[in-house]
Amino acid sequence: MATKASTSAARLMMAPAVTLLLGWMLVPLTMTLYFSFADYRPLRGVFEPWIGFDNYARFTSSGSFWDAIWATLIMVGAILAITVTLGILLALLLDKPIFGQGVVRILVIAPFFVMPTVSALVWKNMMMDPVNGVLSHVFRFFGATPFDWLTQAPLTSIILIVSWQWLPFATLILLTAIQSLDGEQLEAAEMDGAPPLKRFWFIILPHLARAITIVILIQTIFLLGIFAEIFVTTQGSFGTRTLTYLVFQRVLESQNVGLGSAGGIIAVILANIVAIFLMRAVGKNLDA
After folding, report:
1. Cα–Cα distance between 246 and 64 in angstroms, integer?
2. In a 10 Å sphere around its CB, with 0-12 CB exposed, 13-18 middle and 19+ buried, how is residue 74 labelled?
3. Alpha helices of 180-249 — where are they, by DSSP H?
4. Is 20 exposed, middle or buried (CB count within 10 Å of its CB: 0-12, 13-18, 19+)?
5. Containing domain of residue 197, as a range?
6. Which of 35, 44, 144, 274 lies at a CB distance of 3.0 to 4.6 Å from 139, suitable for a disulfide?
7. Where are the strands (E) in the chain, listed by range?
């Protein structure tokens, strides 16, 4: 049983780490919040410490803001749909005894450990190149005309690249959930004459509900900050500019730190709203 002295000692030992962590999180956020109310353009030598909510009004009233919100929602929704659907199918496949099962599982999970920049470069130069890309050779083999993915289907291209990166994560979580399913339920349903589709729909899928919710929660939080893939492939053109990339353009390309900071605060607020909503959904699912 912890005494008052031991509790105080534990708090004292944790204090340096907690202080460092809070400083690491709060100092950048505080500076961003401060600059969001200022007119700060360093290359032009402009610094007005207080302009009220002008940066917020200017950022949200721009047509680029709503386009970026829409592009972000499309990307996140499409990537979640692809990774969850294919993740379930791959998890069901990997759960079956097959030759070289361990090697296959490692190969399936491997893309998750590839850095986003490297992944985007590989897909851009090796897979989607309109002349020498693998997909172009596949198109020619079947008699079809290759096309420039990043120019003619830029949004779809980024969705495919990011989905390829996050599919192993979804597969791993869902595979773990499937392996925790009691096999006796499936055997009993099979003995009762239930076809495979009904066994999946009424037994496996409900069992995966919690795992699917966790996958959606974690992926959504990270996918709201998609940046590297866009920067390497399309640089925000052709309708692929997300909210994160719009903030980057306002800060670095336009050199308007105040406007970019306002966009960053807006992005943080929106991300927290989504996270709170998803956390409540996860809590209800776990309590069910």
Report:
1. 8
2. middle
3. 183-191, 196-199, 205-207, 209-223, 228-233, 243-248
4. exposed
5. 37-287
6. 144
7. 39-41, 46-48
pLDDT digits (tens, 9 = 90+) for 258-268: 998 999 999 88
Calpha distance 2→174 (Å, rounded): 39
pLDDT of residue 266: 92
The residues of the chain scoring below 70 in pLDDT are: 1-2, 282-288
The reported pLDDT for the residue numbered 285 is 62
Q: Are 247 and 271 in contact (CB under 8 A)?
A: no
Q: How many domains does the chain have?
A: 1
236 and 249 Cβ atoms separated by less than 8 Å: yes
Count Cβ atoms within 10 A of the Cβ of residue 12 and give its class: 0-12 exposed, 13-18 middle, 19 or more buried: exposed
Residue type, 122: V
Q: Establish if 20 belongs to a structural domain.
A: no
Residue 32 domain-assigned (yes or no): no
Output the pLDDT for position 286: 60
Look up the CATH number of the domain holding residue 58. 1.10.3720.10
The alpha carbons of the chain give a radius of gyration, in whole angstroms, of: 24
Query: Which of these, 112, 121, 59, lies nearest to 247 by C-alpha position?
Result: 59
At residue 140, φ and ψ (nearest 5 deg) are -65, -35
C-beta of residue 171 within 8 angstroms of C-beta of residue 109: yes
Q: What is the 3-state secondary structure (H, E, C) of 142-181?
A: CCCCCCCHHHHCHHHHHHHHHHHHHHHHHHHHHHHHHHCC
Residue 26 lies in a domain: no
Residues 58 and 225: their CA atoms lie apart, in Å, by 22
Structural domain contains residue 113: yes
User: Which pair of tokens denotes residue 231?
Assistant: 């920067």
Give me the pLDDT at residue 231, please: 93
Count of other CB atoms within 10 angstroms of residue 119? 19
